[in-house]
Amino acid sequence: MTHRSTLEHLLEKYKFISTAKSKHLLMMNNYTYCQMNNTRQHYCSSYWSNGCKARVKLDLKGLNGVGCKGKVKLDSNGKVIKADQIHSHEPPKYVKTTNYEFIPTGKGRHVLMMNKYTYYKREAPGNYYCSKNSSGCKAKVKLNSSGTVVKADQSHNHEPPRYMKTSKGIYILNKTFSDYEFIPSGNRKYLLMMNKYTYYQKKKTGNYYCSKNSSGCKAKVKLDSSGAVVKADQSHNHEPPRYMKTSKGMYKLSNKYLCSYDYEFIPSGKGKHLLMMNKYTYSQQNKTGNYYCSKNSSGCKAKVKLDSSGAVVKADQSHNHEPPRYMKTSKGMYIRILNKTFSDYEFIPSGKGKHLLMMNKYTYSQQHKTGNFYCSKSSCGCKAKVKLDSSGAVVKADQSHNHEPPRYMKTLKGMKNFKFFTQFFSDYEFIPTSKGKYLLMMNNYTYCQRANTGNYYCSKHGIGCKGKVKLDSNGKVLKADQIHNHEPPKYLKTADGKYIRISGRIFDFEQNFLDYGFIPTGKGKHLLMMDKYTYYQQNKTGHYYCSKKSCGCKAKVKLNSSGAVVKADQSHNHEPPHYEFIPTGKGKHLLMMNKYTYWQKNNTGHWYCSKFSFGCKGKVKFDSNGVVKAFDTHNHEPPQYIKTTSGQYVKV
């Protein structure tokens, strides 16, 4: 090809594009040229601004000026005969837009759709902004008076909305759904399958309802006469049925969900092989394609069927037991272990110059310098054992222990010597007593000092508790024997860091249950509410007793003169009342019971349904002891509230 023919071939690739002022630019190789004074001369668009010299030269001679020299020359038929493309700048950035269309909205208006995104019209003519503009999306499209796209900024920060185009060309906004197919059912009929859910046909029409419609599922699909989906409501209230696609393309309903259909064969101890699928093993039946669960003799009905090519044609995995535990070695071999999966092990020194094997916190002693290790509690009847091969790899691990693991603490030096303790101990602190002395507190237990030494004995030492702690002169723990024969005492840590001895049930010290409030009753009195339980005041003192005291509940709370909790016995013998108070936007509170809300009348114990003005007769009444009388005959559905992570309620 000659230089002339090559030039002509390149120059033929140009076109005209519209501008916002109803004019046209000549575009060639992504560069644009503007026409000079309605002649055939086209100069680069950056002729005046950037000094570009690129140009297209026409038959009619024109001034080159001092700007961009880029120009294109056309003959009378519009054929390029000369093109000077020595530009001094980068080509302008244009977006090649695709076709667009207008689709109706639900309010009688239309939105512009381009590349699956939608745009709404602003007050200025021709300007369309992304439908997610209120969410920060800056994408926009501009049309001229003739409807041609002159600008398209499609820098979206979100996924396009999901529309479905029906056979009649109508768009329906819906959830994304894939193609569907028909699968045979057992009654010589067919089910429609879409996104793993199945639908049955209603009276030979285009309406298909979820197979769980009788159980209250409202999902449905509608097809037109051509089989196209015109409506798909997939608001299911259940999991999809579990189908397995066979090698022949048929679907089989499985009783249990299959993670995958891959399987493999592993050798058994008798020179045969077991089929392993999803960690379960199956034995072959009479050299056929039928494989039954290894626990078939124990009543397990799970089974797998293979065809002649080895493909799975049926898999019933309704097991009634846990899968057996196998360990895959580095060589790809499977070794069965008799109990739970074990992690790596290590050797720790014992007190006699020997070592113990430690695995999953349990220790094992070696038997006659062989690879057999038996549990340290073997003399007490424990049958657990571990077997190592010559390379130190675990080949067998029976961890059926009949006792708790021994308690070891790793020293701060990171050494492999472990010192035996009965329980891990954390940091300790000192708390004052009522006699001006201090108790050492560790792991919720308290210890009293012995004769101003570093020895601390459990506060229950007088009743036979052997727990004790020893500190050195620097306060470092040297020994901690925490063999207690009792529960730890119950203390409450206040907001200022002080401890208060309490009775009753054990509290979660990280939960600040000191917050309480007062709620009015029907006779001008108040109830104290703490942790959803209510207490009434005894003779205008600081003593508050549970509202269910007449039913035998012994729970009580004591406040001092400043209103601080000094004692809280919350050993209730009943559940808390099923109501709570939620704040409103006006500084007041609503009572919520069984999802319905009630407002208080004149600061009394009478609470009326929030829909009282609409004729609802629901109400709640508190008596002086906090006993609730509820008349919950509502004529409406309860309001919908969402409880946030901070415990607040937001109405939706």
TrEMBL record:
Domain FLYWCH-type, first and last residues per copy: 102-158, 182-238, 265-321, 347-403, 518-574
MF annotations from Gene Ontology: zinc ion binding
Claim: Transferase is one of the keywords in the record: no
Keyword line: Metal-binding, Zinc, Zinc-finger
Record field: transmembrane: none
Protein name in the entry: Modifier of mdg4
